[in-house]
Design a protein that fits this description.
By secondary structure, the protein is mostly helical. It is built from 33 helices and ten strands.
């Protein structure tokens, strides 16, 4: 943390450079023994590395689980077998089906003729009627409107002319008044003559209007006649009418103006007709009904007793005429026989079959029935089944069966088997990756988790294949205890236990499922003496149950001896599983079964040695850290922690406080408490390079930032992140711990110096301050543990700077800091939920209230001060002479914070 800058005046550039050169640059040195060897740095989170490693792991697993084939050749027919020939796997040998022709004939006769029923034909026909009648009706209505419009225009024009002519005739009819001068009489006569001329012109206009109306009316009738002829053709085409529907019938419909009533009558008639199933050849249908027909549309079978459900095409057309006549007879008023006949003709012409025989579908059904009949039938052999026994004569059939079996294991078929195994392994790994990606926040924290997962899978598969080969070699020369005992002694659970140790219980379950499948494939051609069934089933069950027991036993692994405890637990689980296998496979118990039990117990204990050997290797190669390693890092005698406590004791104490605070929050939300606490111990290692630039290491009244510009101060602050990473890597701290150093700040703003820089820029009238210059480099917290350290770091520093840390103020400040980190987007890349954040706030409040609880004010004992003065030899006279004032110790806080805001 930093104390506030007290000097508002910025020093000059030369002074800043001098101060910059004077900053401490302590170099962390390691013991020579620790610098002798350095593991190569590999970025397991890189996409290219993950892809290449995944392909390599898949190839290795494929090679390891490929099953071995039989080791004999095809014997010569006629010779005596010198050994037992048994099936090396489950397989089939095909032989011709002697009843094939008979079965084909029966299958063809059993197929029903297939018909297609057009259920929506009435709707389709009705839609065509609506379109045809609507278009014709629109044409007639348009023509009528055009004629009415012409007539209306004629009436308006003639009305205006007639009115003017009446007025002129009235004005002309009166005599010329007497007593007018000759000039006035002449003028009056001229007006009368002018009106007569105007009246004559109006009479001429009336004739022009009549002529124009007649011409336009004639044009409209010609246009209507042409469009009507075209509409008749469209009407016939749309409804597919026969030549029996002549022009007279169409004109009859036009006279009816293609009324909606006629349209509805036609549609209702068609709907009534198509309610029945109409066939073109009813006699042929009845013949087929004797054996049954299939309606593909209805998925239904019809027989002869249902023949009444069908109509012939001729009967359906007659029914259409009858339905039309009946509906016209029901209409009120005088019947229009011409219109009735026209509608009946249309209904008759539009009727067609809606139940249609489909030879294509019928043939398809016959082909499917025939294809289902096998030309060859299988003769099945099970794994371990005897083909020919020792001492028996080998027949051609025996040789053919053995040859078929060997073909399945030949080089060409081995490639097919290889392709199948490759597909299986690739599919399993891809499904595992997709599953992990979809549940990323619950299973996989980082991409390198998948790399470690694959590495453990490769190691376990290789170890089990090696154990299988060693067991086969031992059994070949020494078979006293039985082959099964050696297989039960294999350490089958160590892979799942490693996965649980490094990646958690969820991925451990995924791992044991994956390994169960792979081991089942590896042992698919195994048949162990003493087991009545194939061994791969039991070894797979044995692996799954043993691994599940190992995963459950890997709880609270805080020291190396805990691994032995977990391994012994697995041994007892193995013993129980062996007992289950014995009960399932053995008809009687014998002393040799004790070897099986002993093998299971030994197999559990062998897991311990593999765990002890592989755990440090995986920690070093992949940069993982286990609880065992974390407890080692928690030792205060660790070189980095010891140096931090010596060079920056304030930072060390602050880190301890942050660790305790974050650990309690981790327990509240189900994160890793130990990882969180240890990460907090190391999160501020970089401050040991320049400890006096951080508030918790500053003597009272001394602040080097008072003499630096804000940009320089911010640079020093940000550099402690880079310095911390360098120190952590020099001490070879695990990457999980190193991540706490940059992520606990994220890209947060160094607010104090940013505000001061803006203030100075505003006073100087300079350019705006770039906010990015005052932000940490990041990244933001990627895990809940680093996010908890970020929140605990801010809350602990802020509460420590409170002058009066009352419960109300502590709660308000904690809530404010957590909200500010959330609003600044610092928690966007970790999977903290709102529920988690509430639990974190509650945990912080409890812990901080326990730390900063209210202290009682102790009353001063009368005479205590005088006795103390006398004991120390201090008098009022000496005190006033030396200027030394004895402090009042009563009620003084033990850790008074520096005034003003504190900056981390």
């Amino acid at each position: 943390m930093f104390s506030p800058v007290r000097n508002p005046v910025a020093p000059d550039h030369a002074s800043n450079m001098t101060k910059k050169r004077s900053i401490e640059t302590t170099e962390t040195r390691l013991p020579d023994a620790q610098r002798r060897f350095k593991w190569p740095s590999v970025s397991w989170d890189g996409r290219a590395v993950r892809v290449l490693f995944g392909l390599a792991a898949s190839a290795v697993v494929v090679v390891l689980i490929m099953p071995a084939g039989p080791h004999f050749t095809v014997p010569t027919p006629g010779l005596i077998a010198q050994r037992d020939y048994r099936a090396s796997r489950d397989f089939e040998v095909m032989r011709p089906n002697p009843r094939y022709e008979e079965e084909v004939r029966k299958a063809s006769n059993a197929v029903f003729p297939v018909y297609e029923y057009v259920e929506d034909l009435a709707e389709k026909k009705g839609d065509k009627v609506v379109v045809a009648f609507s278009n014709a009706r629109l044409l007639v209505e348009t023509h009528k409107k055009a004629v009415d419009s012409l007539e209306q225009q004629r009436q308006i024009s003639l009305s205006e002319l007639k009115s003017e002519m009446d007025m002129l005739e009235k004005s002309i009819a009166g005599p010329i008044q007497q007593g007018l001068s000759p000039a006035e009489k002449e003028d009056a006569q001229n007006q009368i003559d002018s009106k007569k001329n105007r009246l004559a012109r109006l009479n001429s206009d009336v004739k022009d209007i009549e002529n124009e109306f007649s011409a336009r009316l004639s044009d409209e009738k010609s246009r209507f006649a042409r469009e009507l002829a075209h509409q008749e053709l469209e009407f016939r085409r749309e409804l597919r009418l026969s030549p029996r529907f002549d022009t007279v019938s169409f004109e009859t419909l036009m006279e009816d103006r293609f009324s909606t009533r006629s349209e509805e009558t036609l549609r209702d008639s068609l709907k009534a007709v198509f309610a029945s199933k109409i066939v073109r050849d009813l006699d042929r249908l009845e013949e087929r009904l004797r054996r049954g027909i299939r309606s593909a549309t209805e998925n239904r079978i019809y027989y002869l007793d249902q023949a009444r459900a069908f109509l012939s095409l001729e009967a359906a057309r007659m029914l259409a005429i009858e339905e039309t006549n009946r509906r016209f007879a029901e209409r009120a008023g005088t019947p229009n026989l011409r219109l009735q006949n026209a509608i009946a003709q249309i209904a008759e012409a539009m009727v067609e079959e809606n139940f249609i025989y489909s030879p294509t579908l019928t043939q398809l059904m016959e082909d499917e029935a025939i294809v289902a009949i096998p030309k060859d039938i299988p003769e099945r052999f099970q794994n371990g089944q005897q083909i020919v026994g020792s001492g028996q004569r080998i027949t051609d059939r025996h040789a053919a069966i053995i040859e078929k079996m060997l073909e399945m294991d030949s080089g060409r078929n081995r490639l097919l088997s290889l392709a199948g195994v490759v597909g299986l392994v690739f599919g399993l790994f891809v499904l595992m990756w997709l599953f992990a990606r979809n549940a990323w926040h619950r299973l996989v924290r980082r991409p390198r988790d998948i790399v470690l997962f694959l590495a453990i899978s490769v190691v376990e598969t290789g170890m089990l294949r090696l154990s299988q080969l060693v067991t086969s070699g031992i059994i070949a020369v020494w078979d006293t205890v039985g082959e099964a005992a050696f297989y039960f002694a294999m350490p089958v659970a160590f892979g799942t236990m490693l996965t649980r140790l490094f990646l958690g219980p969820n991925l451990a379950v995924v791992f044991l499922i994956l390994q169960g499948i792979l081991i089942g494939v590896m042992w698919q051609d195994r048949s162990v003496m003493g087991l009545e069934q194939s061994f791969n089933l039991y070894i797979t069950l044995y692996l799954v149950v043993s691994s599940l027991g190992g995963s459950l036993a890997m709880v609270e692994i805080r020291q190396r001896t805990s691994l032995f405890r977990a391994s012994v637990t697995v041994g007892f689980v193995n013993v129980v599983m062996v007992a289950v296998v014995v009960l399932l496979t053995q008809s009687e118990l014998h002393v040799g079964l004790l070897y099986w039990v002993g093998g299971g117990l030994i197999g559990g204990i062998l897991n311990y040695f593999l765990l002890v050997a592989l755990t440090p290797a995986f920690e070093t190669i992949f940069g993982y850290v286990t609880d065992i390693k974390l407890l080692e890092l928690a030792n205060v005698n660790q070189p980095s922690l010891k140096e931090l406590s010596m060079r920056a004791p304030g930072t060390y104490q602050h880190s301890i406080m942050v660790g305790n605070l974050a650990e309690s929050a981790a327990e509240a939300i189900g994160a890793n408490p130990l990882m969180t606490r240890i990460g907090a111990y190391y999160h501020d290692l970089g401050k040991m390079r320049n400890p006096r630039y951080f508030a918790e290491n500053q003597p009272r009244g001394e602040n080097p930032h008072d003499k630096l510009k804000p940009h320089m101060s911010a640079l020093i602050i940000k550099n402690h992140v880079k310095d911390g990473i360098e120190i952590a890597r020099k001490h070879r701290l695990p990457q999980d711990i190193v991540d706490f150093i940059p992520e606990h700040h994220g890209n947060a703003l160094i607010g104090f110096f940013y505000a001061r820089a803006k203030e100075q820029a505003n006073l100087a009238g300079g350019p705006d301050v770039d906010e990015n210059d005052f932000r940490y480099p990041g990244p933001k917290p990627q895990r809940r543990e680093t996010a908890l350290v970020m929140l605990a770091d801010g809350c602990e520093a802020a509460v420590r700077s409170l002058p009066d840390p009352s419960p109300v103020r502590i709660r308000a400040l904690v809530k404010k800091i957590v909200n500010s980190k959330f609003m600044d987007g610092q928690l966007d890349e970790c999977d903290l939920s709102f529920k988690d954040m509430n639990a974190i706030v509650q945990s912080f409040n409890r812990a901080l209230l326990n730390i900063y609880h209210a202290r009682p004010v102790y009353p001063q004992i009368p005479g205590e001060e005088e006795r103390a003065r006398a004991r120390l030899g201090i008098s009022d006279e000496s005190e006033s002479r030396t200027g030394v004032v004895t402090p009042d110790l009563a009620g003084l806080p033990s850790d008074e914070p520096l005034p003003g805001p504190q900056t981390q």
